[in-house]
Amino acid sequence: MASVFPACSGSASLFQGTNFFPFAAKGSPLHLKTPLSAKCVASLGTEISVPPAVDTFWQWLKEEGVVSRKTPVKPGMGPEGLGLVALKDISRNEVVLQVPKRLWINPDAVAASEIGKVCSGLKPWLSVALFLIRERSKDDSLWKHYFSILPKETDSTIYWSEEELSELQGTQLLSTTLSVKEYVKSEFRRLEEEIILPNRKLFPSPITIDEFFWAFGILRSRAFSRLRNENLVVIPFADLINHSARVTTEDHAYEIKGAAGLFSWDYLFSLRSPLSLKAGDQVYIQYDLNKSTAELALDYGFIEPNADRNAYTLTLQISESDPFFGDKLDIAESNGFGETAYFDIFYNRPLPPGLLPYLRLVALGGTDAFLLESIFRNSIWGHLELPVSRDNEELICRVIRETCKTALAAYHTTIEEDQKLKAAKLDSRLAIAVGIREGEKQVLQQIDEIFKEKELELAELEYYQERRLKDLGLCGENGDILGDLGKFF
C-alpha cells in the first residue's frame, strides 16, 4: 500500500493565508494578526491601569497627531492583556483609528533607512526583521516608544520549551513548529554570513538568534497584508486590537488618502469596528476566519473553543515508482494539483473538493488503468468525481483508515483524557496543547468514520462500468445487464 500512497501520513501545511513567508499554501486576504496576549475572550472585564510604557506610547501618538480628543478609543488591560477600549458608544463600521503611512514599518521604511542598500536583495520579511531588530536597539528610533510596549514573546509554539513541546506529541502542529524553527535558524545563519557580519558598521551590536526569533514572531503575528499592494506592514496602534471569535467578518481594514495628523497629507491605514459597542467595551476584530486551531496557536499563541476550526491535513502523493506516474501527474496538473497534494480537512465540514478524485487517481491501476489513456484525458477528472470501481474505492478506504489509525496511535493521550484535563485549570500553553491534541483526534476520527461508511456502501455504489452501460442503454435501472451481454460481465 505504501507505494500507492507514499505520503499519506498527516503533514501540516505551513503558514496558510500569508504571502510574505515561504510556506504559504493558500492566498486568503489577511488583516491584523496579533494580540499582546495569549488568550482570546469576548469581554473586557474589570479595568486595570495600563503600564507606564503604554502611557508614554500614547503620548507619542498624540505628539505625532495620530490620536486626539476625538479618538474614540484608549488603551486598556483586559483578559487578553493590552487592548483598546471604547471611550464612547461606537457604531458598527465606525472608524476607530487611523495611522499615517510615515509611521508604518514596511519594506519602504527599510529602503529609506541606512540599511536599505544592503537589504535590497532580501526577501521582504527578512529585511523588515533586520530593520525591527536594529531600530529597537537605537535610542533615537522613531518607533522607540512602540518597541517598549511590544512583548518579548507570546504563547506561539515557536517560543515553547522542549518540555512544553512534548505535550504536542503526535500532533501535526509539533512537526510544523519544528520545521518553522529550523527554517528561521537557517535564514538567520545565512543573513549573519551574507549581511550582518560583512556590514559591521551598519550592525555594530551583535544580533542574536533570540532577537531574530522575536522579530519573526512580531511579523508573523502583527503584520497586515494586501493594503494597496502592501504585502507586509506593521502598523503601531492598530495592532493593539485583540481578536474575538464573535466577529465573523474580516472586512474592517482599509487604506485611504487623507490628512495624516497635524503635519502632512499621506496614505492612512483606517480600521473600523465590526461590532456595535458601548462605552467601556473592548474593541475586537477577526484576525483570520480561515485559520485552523493549529495555525492560531502557531501564529498568535491562542486557540478558540470553536471546534469547527479543528483541522487535519492529509498529504497525498503520486509515487515516482508508479508505472503510470507520468500519465497521473499530467492529469493531476491539468486539474490544478501536482505530484503532492495537501488537503485540509476541518471538523464538521465536508471533505475538501478534489480529495476523492485525487485519491482515486493515485489508486488507479489494474483493469481501471484504461481510463489513463489519452482518449479519456479531457474527461477523466469527471469520471474520478464518482466511484471508478469497487477495487479502487475499497483501496482508498482501506489506506485512509489505516492512516487515521496510525496517526491516532501516535498521541500519548486519548480524547477522553484530554477532555478531563480541559476541566482542570491549566496554564495557557498546556491548555493550547490539550486543545490541539483533542481537535486533531476529533478530525481523524471523523475522517475514519467517513471512510468506514464508504466501505459499508461499496456493494450499493454505482461504478464506471455500470454508468457507461446505462449511458449506452445496455443496463437496466436496477443495474442488470441487458441481453446476452451479461455473460461477459
From TrEMBL:
<feature type="binding site">
    <location>
        <position position="287"/>
    </location>
    <ligand>
        <name>substrate</name>
    </ligand>
</feature>
<dbReference type="InterPro" id="IPR050600">
    <property type="entry name" value="SETD3_SETD6_MTase"/>
</dbReference>
<keyword id="KW-0150">Chloroplast</keyword>
<dbReference type="InterPro" id="IPR036464">
    <property type="entry name" value="Rubisco_LSMT_subst-bd_sf"/>
</dbReference>
<dbReference type="GO" id="GO:0009507">
    <property type="term" value="C:chloroplast"/>
</dbReference>
<feature type="domain" description="SET">
    <location>
        <begin position="64"/>
        <end position="288"/>
    </location>
</feature>
<feature type="binding site">
    <location>
        <position position="254"/>
    </location>
    <ligand>
        <name>substrate</name>
    </ligand>
</feature>
<feature type="binding site">
    <location>
        <position position="222"/>
    </location>
    <ligand>
        <name>substrate</name>
    </ligand>
</feature>
<protein>
    <recommendedName>
        <fullName>[fructose-bisphosphate aldolase]-lysine N-methyltransferase</fullName>
        <ecNumber>2.1.1.259</ecNumber>
    </recommendedName>
</protein>
<dbReference type="InterPro" id="IPR011192">
    <property type="entry name" value="Rubisco_LSMT_MeTrfase_plant"/>
</dbReference>
<keyword id="KW-0934">Plastid</keyword>
<dbReference type="InterPro" id="IPR044431">
    <property type="entry name" value="SET_RBCMT"/>
</dbReference>
<dbReference type="GO" id="GO:0016279">
    <property type="term" value="F:protein-lysine N-methyltransferase activity"/>
</dbReference>
<keyword id="KW-0489">Methyltransferase</keyword>
<keyword id="KW-0809">Transit peptide</keyword>
<comment type="similarity">
    <text>Belongs to the class V-like SAM-binding methyltransferase superfamily. Plant protein-lysine LSMT methyltransferase family.</text>
</comment>
<dbReference type="InterPro" id="IPR046341">
    <property type="entry name" value="SET_dom_sf"/>
</dbReference>
<keyword id="KW-0808">Transferase</keyword>
<dbReference type="GO" id="GO:0030785">
    <property type="term" value="F:[ribulose-bisphosphate carboxylase]-lysine N-methyltransferase activity"/>
</dbReference>
<feature type="binding site">
    <location>
        <position position="239"/>
    </location>
    <ligand>
        <name>substrate</name>
    </ligand>
</feature>
<feature type="binding site">
    <location>
        <position position="300"/>
    </location>
    <ligand>
        <name>substrate</name>
    </ligand>
</feature>
<dbReference type="Pfam" id="PF09273">
    <property type="entry name" value="Rubis-subs-bind"/>
</dbReference>
<feature type="binding site">
    <location>
        <position position="226"/>
    </location>
    <ligand>
        <name>substrate</name>
    </ligand>
</feature>
<dbReference type="InterPro" id="IPR015353">
    <property type="entry name" value="Rubisco_LSMT_subst-bd"/>
</dbReference>
<feature type="binding site">
    <location>
        <begin position="80"/>
        <end position="82"/>
    </location>
    <ligand>
        <name>S-adenosyl-L-methionine</name>
    </ligand>
</feature>
<dbReference type="GO" id="GO:0032259">
    <property type="term" value="P:methylation"/>
</dbReference>
<keyword id="KW-0949">S-adenosyl-L-methionine</keyword>
<feature type="binding site">
    <location>
        <begin position="242"/>
        <end position="243"/>
    </location>
    <ligand>
        <name>S-adenosyl-L-methionine</name>
    </ligand>
</feature>
<dbReference type="InterPro" id="IPR001214">
    <property type="entry name" value="SET_dom"/>
</dbReference>
